[in-house]
């Protein structure tokens, strides 16, 4: 049963850590623009121009 | 647009000393817009950062105070192909967003707590089956209590508040039994833990809370989303006005920045931005938005004009009056107050069920207690069983069933181009058996159109249309929409009160009044037989023609009314403020026998209330300022997006686009949603029929409670999702198109 002495606090702290992360992300407005976050990863302006895919492919499906 | 708008009213301060504005952006069609807009704005000297919210279509731009004029943002975005307009966060929208965050916080905490308590509970259940020392079990229970009690105290607040509010008004709602069950579960669990008992219900209570919060949060998220879209549309619709400063200089300002007693210049063809008194100039104004009357009214100095009417004639100066100073608005406000109070009497289905349900389960628990006592059980055991009955009958499935259906149904409506203002509107829509339409702007399109375009030679019509682009007259706007090539002619001369003329291919072309183009009054008689028609003439060399301008029916008005009749709604009426002759022609086209013209706001209310006292459930569809009281009085109401602000505020839902079909779709979706709500309520009842005897016999352990509660919640949620499979599937793509197009084009066009 001694194993509980550190297992229980560990489980609780991991849970609390996740809760803290959630509350922090909520407070810092990360849930304000869920759709934007989904499409922002498709932005390729951080790549040099020659590595970007052809633009026509994207502009066609509007 | 060379003129710069004064945006100083919209500038806000940030903690780091920078200032920012929030702009609603129109024309976003894909993810490329993010980079284009943010990049374009950040290239401006002095801009610190720009961040586009892709969900809301709003961009926040921050810059160092006093370094630049924010109006440049609008022109920059315009050059990029986006229309932007400063957005004032309306208080109700802010409140919805705050509430959503609060609920999410509660949900996160309840989620954390239920997971961790379940971790401990499963150990206890396993330990009860094998061997576990009492000390260890107690410790597990105490840790559970340590997590559960603060969680209930914090995350339970949404329910506590609503339940207390209901009790204070001496009625019961769904939250009352929920709160009773949760609190009793906690009290009993603490007591049992003190007595080193085998079972505690901490997990049940917290899990219950988590499921319920899921329902609440979903509901709130949907509400906030529709508010945000509505806010954008309002911002983009907002127009600008020319305010005259002390020196008589006209400055372009957003309408939102206008104050009472400001003097405003309204040029020919513009909309009057505020209610006010004409202090200079004479003109004709079209008040169809305000009163439904389609014939223009002559006004002169001293006359009262209302926001939303269009100036047909010369330029006028209007002095803004405070709201409530003039008679028409006063009258409408007064009627509104009376009408709105009658609507709040509607009690939501969930609350009606809740108020019937709560006494039943509380009685059942009491009976359980008595029977166990009579059968000779100890007081402790009897109480324990009674509390188990309360926990197991806690209307978890009920509280989840209705919101889930509401959320999915309003998502469907959203896709069909309908924005709900009120959550319970779905239930009220489902009961509708009578539909009352306003005519002007509701059954008809808000913009005027050329009625006899097929009788006019195409080349002549094209010349007329391109000439019309250069004219400010509202009738010209209707002609201008016929242009295939949207390019105005060079050197167009406008002759006030007559029309416009220009030299086209070496010949003179004229567009304007019939006299201006060489027609005599007798020529117009044939067309003017139809009283809803106004005439514009075109002359080009030897060719000339009369164009009949009228308010066209919405393209699918006939089909919508047919669909409504097929749906079983036969009582369709038209109540309009316009002249009876104008109403008659529309009513004939639609096959509506029951129509009334020249109705004042009070007449409309009286007619609707008369219907309602006969037991009818009335849906009012209207757009004008004069419709607002009727919209508030009817059981449920819809407005087109082009409606006056006051009408939109009092409508339960707003529909986008030129089509009238959303009215039918609203009713069809609502009916389907109601049947699913009833199914869910039926299932919840069935669940109780099984669970209550179990609890009554004392067989409900925390494990059974956990299985029963999550199982029933899952079933009602999945059933609720079925609203998605829906009426009018074939038009889905088209519906989605409508929303998009309207977001892009609609508000733009209405402000031109």
TrEMBL record, chain A:
Family matches, as InterPro entries: Cyt_oxidase_maturation_cbb3 (IPR004714)
Keywords from the named record: Membrane, Transmembrane, Transmembrane helix
Chain ranges passing through the membrane: 6-26
Top-rank lineage group of the source organism: Bacteria
Name this polypeptide is given: Cbb3-type cytochrome oxidase assembly protein CcoS
Organism of this sequence: Hohaiivirga grylli
Underlying gene: ccoS
Automatic annotation (TrEMBL), chain B:
Regions crossing the membrane: 102-127, 139-160, 172-194, 200-218, 356-377, 383-405, 681-697
Matching Pfam families: E1-E2_ATPase, Hydrolase
Keywords: ATP-binding, Cell membrane, Membrane, Metal-binding, Nucleotide-binding, Transmembrane, Transmembrane helix
SUPFAM superfamilies: Calcium ATPase, transduction domain A, Calcium ATPase, transmembrane domain M, HAD-like, HMA, heavy metal-associated domain
Domain HMA, residue spans: 19-85
InterPro entries: ATPase_P-typ_cyto_dom_N (IPR023299), ATPase_P-typ_P_site (IPR018303), ATPase_P-typ_TM_dom_sf (IPR023298), ATPase_P-typ_transduc_dom_A_sf (IPR008250), ATPase_P-type_domA (IPR059000), HAD-like_sf (IPR036412), HAD_sf (IPR023214), HMA_dom (IPR006121)
Localization per Swiss-Prot or TrEMBL: Cell membrane; Membrane
Keyword Ligase set for record: no
Domain of life: Bacteria
Keyword presence, Nucleotide-binding: yes
PANTHER family listed in its UniProt record: P-TYPE CATION-TRANSPORTING ATPASE (PTHR46594)
Family: Belongs to the cation transport ATPase (P-type) (TC 3.A.3) family. Type IB subfamily.
Protein name: Heavy metal translocating P-type ATPase
Native organism taxonomy: Bacteria, Pseudomonadati, Pseudomonadota, Alphaproteobacteria, Hyphomicrobiales
